[in-house]
């Protein structure tokens, strides 16, 4: 078998250092998260703000996932997913030249509106898809041309409503598969981000359980507390594995969109359900301090809970996966463990 | 701190995929001619020596045993793929299960040439079946407290004591018995234990059935009354029993049997939904996804083990999550609309579901309870 996740050690170290240094130097946490342009400039300098550009470093989703994880592990306030694997990839589909602006992306409805667009109010450009007749158009448009109504998700991340007069837009035609893959990429990016933050959350629970003393010993010595953490760790392991499997499928590029959708649906289902157990158990381990704004735990748990509902909610993914299974003609095991490279 | 709980995931190579395909064809043919009737829990309940021999004929028994000892000299991963496929299909593999999964590897690791010559060829062709004699009335989770005693005599050992929950002992040829051969040293409780290969038909061995709550008979009490074991049937080193027993645990805990026991039932849920006998339920996708996640972890552990690497706490994680999930699937299957009172189109599901619901209590106990395993995971995380 060949090993996956063979993310280059040096690269992984570099990702960890960049965000680790940023986190050490940054000010106090904020209820409302603002895009950190200084951190962004560092990413641009290092050439990792647009990691998977085709004419760039040759990085694949494996490296991109490493970056997303590292950012999520430190609650870094930058739209790394949106700029690279979403907008960047979309712009490539329409042969739009790369630039050093900060981008996000969204799908507009036929009236030219979209809700809860990640980072829209704080980036430079939005790469938009919109339906025209039976087809789709794509354009990269300065945010200044949109009417923007700022909003926030439960984690305080910018999720803004945007609208524009579609008649003023000139777009390139793209096939509907681009729209489908965009949605799957977004869903997978959120799975990777969740996995990264969940890992940090489990680490925090171990740290807390070994340092907090009650009844004369670290609370981690109590079997009941050990059980909470052991179960959280277990959920983390399967969340990581199913997310990595989907990343691998996309990086290898061999499975086609149906195969990719299956892997992404599995990843989102497993990771979404894992998030429920991990967040619940880890808060329980932390006691009252974990419920405060002062403690860092919420900086990781809140985004996880927000991401879980983006690019499809947990129930939508469970439902979609069920549909895919029922629509197939294969037995359940053969569907999940194909022998034809699907 | 950073935690590393499981090895990185791996992608299956071409050869293994081809093997998988071959096993699937074999299974399809078996189902077509009814030599293979899918059941749940088929690695404990499905005793079928003829089926075991049909696997031997394909070269799928004793796969990792070297050719010189009658085996196939295949890799651990090849065996892993074959067992995955058989378990997923609910094939009756329990007759050879223990011998194939752990006795063979233990003999290869600790056995003498004589023992290998004597036992391995029979294991590989489906003529010799084995049980495991570890648990005792007063030694369950606390295995080191076994009281079965081995006393050295001329030319061997006399073993006395009683074993319990010994799966398949009534139909097996031998079992590995864990016995105390030196008095308990309270500072080193794990010292002074030894393993013996006991012929279950020797004088002094008395196997008595224990009937399970569903009326089935798969495990037993085994009474040992001064059973003579010649020196050449001592496994490994006297006094090293604990290390020998625990060295194979990662294989046992992370294997596909820890999450596939009820897969035929989940498949039947899918088929019933496809037929329109059940409304599509998102829980179906949810459990399928979970099984696939466990599959990924299990494969990556197998891959690591095959390279002799440490797999840390991940093997225990697979067992805790996997056995819980296979039980939850039983719960799901038996609570769908029409579970008990619906029409005949749900009969297959009902039969599998009822069976699973009554077997599930054992899932999270056998091979080390989930509570004990959570302790193992906690230790791996540095909590104890
Ligand atoms: C279907 C089946 C087949 C089996 N086949 C075999 C076989 O072939 N050979 C064999 O040797 N054995 C076999 N066993 C026995 C199995 O290994 C034991 O059941 C198991 O080790 C638990 O021991 P026990 O049943 O005595 O439970 P106990 O150890 O008495 O445990 C009872 C409860 O207490 C909990 N508990 C115990 N200690 C702790 C602790 N330190 N911390 C937290 N909780 C604890 C347990 O988790 C459990 O919930 C089989 C069991 C089953 C159910």
Describe it.
The complex is a heterodimer of chains A (342) and B (384). By secondary structure, chain A is of the alpha+beta class. Helix content of chain A is 53%, strand content 13%. Chain A has helices at 9-25, 37-45, 61-73, 80-93, 176-211, 223-252, 256-286, 297-307, 314-327, 332-336, and strands at 2-3, 103-107, 113-118, 125-132, 135-142, 147-149, 159-163, 172-174, 213-214, 217-218. A four-stranded mixed β-sheet of chain A has the order 2-4-5-8. Chain A has a three-stranded antiparallel β-sheet with strand order 3-7-6, with no helix packed on it. In chain A, strand 9 and strand 10 form a beta hairpin. Chain A is globular. Chain A starts with a strand and ends in a 6-residue tail after the last helix. Chain B has three domains: 14-128, Butyryl-Coa Dehydrogenase, subunit A, domain 1 (Orthogonal Bundle); 132-239, Butyryl-CoA Dehydrogenase, subunit A, domain 2 (Beta Barrel), CATH 2.40.110; 255-380, Butyryl-CoA Dehydrogenase, subunit A, domain 3 (Up-down Bundle), CATH 1.20.140.10. The longest helix of chain B has 25 residues, at 282-306. Chain B is globular and about 70 Å long. Chain B starts with 9 loop residues before the first strand and ends with a helix. In chain B, 52% of the residues are buried. The chains are: A alpha+beta (342), B alpha+beta (384). Chains A and B meet through strand 1, helix 5, helix 6, helix 7 and helix 9 of A and strand 1, helix 1, helix 3, helix 8 and helix 9 of B. Strand 1 (2-3) of chain A pairs antiparallel with strand 1 of chain B. Flavin-adenine dinucleotide is lined by residues 44, 131-135, 140-141, 165-167, 219, 362, 365-369, 371-372, 375 of chain B.
